[in-house]
Design brief:
Layout: H1 8-29, H2 32-66, H3 71-95, H4 99-122
């Protein structure tokens, strides 16, 4: 039976390819600052999805062992969010990243999800 849900790995691989292509196009047609912003934005969403999966697995396994949600498992996701918001704030205020490039790098994640969902949905079922 074929799964109708794309894997995180396929989404991440597609996202990395989209970030590379987008950064290359931005470097050629816009500026190197926009390309760097795109690379940073893409890296942020790749690391974010990886950490979300790891923290989710941790929270579920600790809840399964203890018979309910643990404080650490419940606090991990908001703490990760605060860490990412803080790091992105510092990147924009101290390093002066290109906002348009960063946004394009972040949007590659959504595009990768749409591409992989379409690919899985259009796959012919094998019986």
């Amino acid at each position: 039976m074929i799964s109708a849900i794309p894997t995180l790995r396929s989404i991440q691989v597609t996202n990395v390819a989209l970030v590379a292509v987008s950064a290359g196009l931005l470097a050629g047609f816009v500026s190197s600052a926009a390309a760097i912003g795109c690379l940073v934005g893409g890296a942020v969403v790749v690391v974010n999805m990886f950490l979300l999966a790891a923290i989710g697995r941790f929270a579920l396994s600790s809840a399964e062992r203890s018979g309910g949600a643990t404080r650490l498992g419940a606090a991990a996701l908001p703490l990760k969010l605060l860490l990412f918001v803080g790091l992105i704030y510092v990147a924009f205020t101290r390093v002066h990243l290109d906002g348009l490039g960063f946004a394009l790098g972040v949007l590659t994640q959504v595009t990768a999800i749409i591409i992989q969902t379409g690919r899985v949905a259009l796959r012919k079922p094998s019986f």
